[in-house]
């Protein structure tokens, strides 16, 4: 119950900070990802800090992630024709959300946290540039870059509070979560910059067909699921709610894999 109350408090804070009547009329509301909030709170609970600090930091990181994701929407939409006004408004929305996280930390005068999160943002943006550039790189570098994009912010928290045992778990969990979303996106829309990028670097020898795009992430889903399951077994003292949530994700993926194999 404590966990759900914390999640709801964080969501409420984020909604308050992202609400804008004009933007809401023209572009979709930002997606507030409860799975990531749960992960952030689980890490912060181990830091033994006050409840209000947990809510503040979790809301701040969620706002940063929303801002970064919103700007990424614009980057991805440039690949496709779309409404120019909506693109401009999306950029403004991303800027608005960025400003809100600075405001929260300035209000509580938490300059140390401001510094480490600024470093995290820089790391995310550097990896996005690397990921989206059409330069020569290996599939291993592509994977590492995507892991950094997804995990850099939360791993800065881990470093700050010296909770090193979380590092690998965060990396694998967020990587799995992202590639699962990208596979679902591609299956429903035939569009995903992550699928396209993985396909490009997996297909350097031109041995794959276009139809293989739909399954290019499957082996990474399977391998990452196995690693994550092993980590959960070796870390039994993890927050119960987070552990159960992660097992649900793994079970859902296993069922999907069985369905595909039997299909």
What's the structural blueprint in terms of helices and strands?
Blueprint: H1 2-18, H2 21-26, H3 34-46, H4 51-77, H5 84-107, H6 111-132, H7 139-160, H8 167-189, H9 193-202, H10 218-234, H11 240-262
Helix pairs in contact: 1-3, 1-4, 3-4, 4-5, 6-7, 7-8, 8-10, 10-11
Describe this protein's structure.
The protein has 2 domains: 1-109, no CATH class; 139-262, no CATH class. The chain has helices at 2-18, 21-26, 34-46, 51-77, 84-107, 111-132, 139-160, 167-189, 193-202, 218-234, 240-262. The radius of gyration is 19 Å and the shape is globular. The chain is built from 11 helices and no strands. The longest helix is centred in the first third of the chain and has 27 residues, at 51-77. This is Heptaprenyl diphosphate synthase. It comes from Niallia circulans (Bacillus circulans).
Enumerate how many helices there are, as a single number.
Answer: 11
Helix content range = over 70%
Order of helices and strands: HHHHHHHHHHH
How much strand content do the residues show? under 5%
Please report the total strand number as a whole number: 0
Structural class: mainly alpha
How many domains make up the coordinates? 2
Shape: globular
Rg is 19 Å
Largest sheet: none
Determine the N-to-C terminus distance. Answer: 40 Å
| Poorly predicted runs | none
Oligomer: single chain
- The average pLDDT value, as a whole number, equals 85
InterPro entries: HEPPP_synth_su1
Protein name: Heptaprenyl diphosphate synthase
Pfam family, one: HEPPP_synt_1
Organism: Niallia circulans (Bacillus circulans)
């Amino acid at each position: 119950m404590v966990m759900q109350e914390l999640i709801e408090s964080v969501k409420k804070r984020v909604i308050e900070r992202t609400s804008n009547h004009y933007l809401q009329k023209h572009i979709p509301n930002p997606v507030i990802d409860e799975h990531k909030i749960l992960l952030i709170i689980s890490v912060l609970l181990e830091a033994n800090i006050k409840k209000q600090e947990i809510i503040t930091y979790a809301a701040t990181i969620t706002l940063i992630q929303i801002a970064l994701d919103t700007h990424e929407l614009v980057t991805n939409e440039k690949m496709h024709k779309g409404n120019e006004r909506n693109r401009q408004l999306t950029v403004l929305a991303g800027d608005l959300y960025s400003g809100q996280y600075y405001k929260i930390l300035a209000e509580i005068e938490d300059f140390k946290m401001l510094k480490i999160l600024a470093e995290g943002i820089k790391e995310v943006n550097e990896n996005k540039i690397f990921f989206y550039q059409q330069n020569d790189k290996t599939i291993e570098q592509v994977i590492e870059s995507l892991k950094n994009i997804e995990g850099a912010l939360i791993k800065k928290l881990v470093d700050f509070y010296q909770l090193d045992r979380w590092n690998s778990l965060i990396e694998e969990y967020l990587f799995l979560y992202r590639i699962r979303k990208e596979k679902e996106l591609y299956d429903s829309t035939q569009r995903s910059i992550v699928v396209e990028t993985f396909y490009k670097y997996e297909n350097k020898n031109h041995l794959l067909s276009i139809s293989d795009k739909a399954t290019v992430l499957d082996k990474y889903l399977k391998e990452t699921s196995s690693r994550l399951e092993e980590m959960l077994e070796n870390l039994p003292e993890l927050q119960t709610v987070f552990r159960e949530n992660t097992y649900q994700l793994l079970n859902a993926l296993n069922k999907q894999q069985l369905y595909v194999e039997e299909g």
